Automatic annotation (TrEMBL):
This is isocitrate lyase. NCBIfam families: isocit_lyase (TIGR01346). One of its GO terms (biological process) is glyoxylate cycle. Signal peptide: none annotated. It comes from Heracleum sosnowskyi. InterPro entries: Isocitrate_lyase (IPR006254), Pyrv/PenolPyrv_kinase-like_dom (IPR015813), Pyrv_kinase-like_dom_sf (IPR040442).
């Protein structure tokens, strides 16, 4: 609405000018593309459908969303709009996940490997401690101690460590490790039942690993975030969205390369986005000045065709935004400093 208002006021002002005055007065394009943050959809499928309908009706040119992509794609297709749908993936830094219903997540869910904790779930322990009156730092200390004792691992890492500890020759260990890795790579999306069957075939009978014991009081499962977890999600998002954005906590060329190569090994034509976040600590990235300047063009060659820098604290940021954008366009990454 604000853009339309200023555009209308400009047209009215120019209509009252003479031809010579209009020629001397620069025309300002107020109708800049609007990129809307859909977060996780703010509810289920129906809430996401309504949200995306409102975005499209209010003139959003692009919507980025972390979940409910199918609902968002459906709404834009039904409306016949050309709204760009960006899939945001936060799996790199994720530590918790809501459920274990999806086999695509199984390779990254953490479980307890210490058999001494069998039947002693973290939730029950914390409930007892809270009933005794402990809260705050004391409660957190007990949880931290329990997690340290639990020796949390993914099921795959648990199997690998168990094979290494088998009382067999080194050649046989290597054979079993190779067989496991060939069957249980992150791209295979094995179910836990299938993984246990393979582990038993490799001689690991009654292997202790429990992903329910370390669940949080809110019911979340522990998750090992990684670039591989983001790649698995990207493979499924690619046919639905227009661009895929993997959020990272720091500028890391290795992460960018690993994600781009892993994603494009299956979906070659997928366009990628990268957030040049204002929270990045470039000085702590390990790059020198020249590497910082080369960062944008280098990841562009990997397929990151939309690189953006979002501005926080809108009112205060407006004052210097024009100068910032000019520097970013002219100087590249050096303009961020």
């Amino acid at each position: 609405m604000a853009q339309q208002y200023h555009d209308r006021k400009q047209r009215e002002a120019r209509m009252s000018m003479s031809r010579e005055e209009r020629a001397r007065t620069p025309f300002i394009d107020y109708l800049k593309p609007i990129i809307a943050d859909g977060d996780t959809g703010f509810g289920g499928a129906t809430a996401t459908v309504k949200l995306c309908k409102l975005f499209a009706e209010r003139g959003a040119d692009c919507v980025h969303i972390e979940d409910q992509l199918v609902a968002a794609r459906l709404q834009f297709d039904v409306m016949g709009t050309e709204t760009v749908l960006v899939a945001r993936i936060d799996a790199v830094a994720a530590t918790l996940i809501q459920s274990n219903i999806d086999t695509r997540d199984y390779q990254f869910i953490l479980g307890v490997t210490n058999p001494n904790l069998k039947g002693k779930g973290l939730v029950a322990l914390l409930a007892d401690v809270m009933a005794s009156g402990k809260t705050g730092p004391e409660l957190q200390a007990i949880e931290d101690k329990w997690l340290a004792m639990a020796h949390l691992k993914t099921f795959s890492d648990c199997v690998v460590d168990a094979i290494k500890n088998l009382n067999v020759g080194e050649a046989e260990k290597r054979r079993r490790l190779n067989e496991w890795m060939n069957c249980a790579g992150y791209d295979k999306c094995l179910s836990n039942e299938q993984g246990r069957e393979i582990a038993e075939r490799l001689g690991l009978v009654n292997l202790f690993w429990d992903w329910d014991l370390p669940r949080t009081r809110e019911g979340f499962y522990r998750f090992q975030g990684s670039v591989n977890a983001a790649i698995v999600r990207g493979w499924d998002f690619a046919p639905i969205c227009d661009i895929i954005w993997m959020e990272t906590s720091s500028p890391d060329l290795v992460e960018c390369t690993e994600f781009a190569q892993g994603l494009k090994s299956v979906t070659l034509e997928t366009m990628l986005a990268y957030n040049l976040s204002p929270s990045f600590n470039w000085d702590a990235s390990g790059m020198n000045d020249q590497q910082m300047m080369d960062f944008i063009p280098r990841i562009a060659k990997l397929g990151y065709c939309w690189q953006f820098h979002y501005t926080c604290w809108f009112p205060r940021g407006c004052f210097n935004r024009g100068h910032f954008c000019q520097r970013l366009c002219k100087e590249g990454n050096d303009g961020l400093c």
